[in-house]
Write a structure and sequence with these properties.
70% of the residues lie in helices and 0% in strands. With 202 residues, it is mainly alpha-helical. It folds into 2 domains: 7-55, Arc Repressor Mutant, subunit A (Orthogonal Bundle), CATH 1.10.10.60; 62-191, Orthogonal Bundle (Tetracycline Repressor, domain 2), CATH 1.10.357.10. The protein is elongated, with a radius of gyration of 19 Å. The relative contact order is 0.11.
Length: 202
């Protein structure tokens, strides 16, 4: 008679995923002003179920951000399996850019609650470690300019994500165009020496 407990846990996990997916859709359409009852209706659950998993809308935003960086970490680890270090690095950058550009809900969180995004990113040590290894491998192969540091990668991706996110307007649909420009700037040997941190500080 120990079978019901796992079933309930599986149901709870499914409900949580349905709420997150519904929140993505609602935030994409209505921004962070989307109402909890709208999210619950789209998820096919009661409002109480939403609040059980996410007591506040801030908690829901944090979960969306955490899910984004969880997926990025998985992509970074997968990129480390590529036999060509530069192609592995480029593939990670490409997949990350596509993920950000297509997620309007994430763009909303990034624009309105940058601290939520920052905290979620800081909580993924595995992501930072994988990115550092991707950088080191590509540099050791002589394909990535030697003055790039791992911390450059998230800054570049955030800027690219803001510029090309769904609904940003202008030529944002072509994240691949801007990523190609970024990648060309990262290739070894690099024509222009990079200034140090704080070079634009007054």
């Amino acid at each position: 008679m120990t079978l019901p407990a796992p079933t309930l846990r599986a149901d709870a996990r499914r409900n949580r995923e349905r709420v997150l997916e519904a929140a993505r859709e609602c935030y994409a359409r209505s921004g962070l002003d989307a109402q909890v009852d709208e999210i619950a209706r789209r998820a096919g659950v009661g409002v109480g179920t939403v609040y059980r998993h996410f007591p506040t809308k801030d908690a829901l935003s944090a979960a969306l951000a955490a899910d984004h960086f969880r997926l990025l970490a998985a992509r970074a680890r997968a990129a480390l399996e590529h036999s060509d270090p530069w192609e592995g690095f480029s593939e990670f950058m490409r997949r990350a850019a596509e993920q950000q550009a297509s997620d309007r809900a994430l763009a909303e969180v990034m624009a309105v609650q940058p601290d939520v995004m920052r905290e979620a990113a800081m909580n993924r040590a595995d992501l930072h470690e994988a990115v550092a290894e991707l950088v080191a491998r590509a540099q050791a192969a002589g394909r990535l300019r030697a003055d790039v540091v791992p911390e450059d990668v998230p800054m570049l991706m955030c800027g690219l994500g803001r510029a090309t996110s769904a609904g940003a307007g202008g030529p944002a649909a072509s994240c691949h165009r801007y990523l190609a420009i970024v990648l060309d700037g990262l290739r070894a040997p690099g024509a222009t020496p990079l200034p140090g941190a704080g070079a634009c500080d007054s």
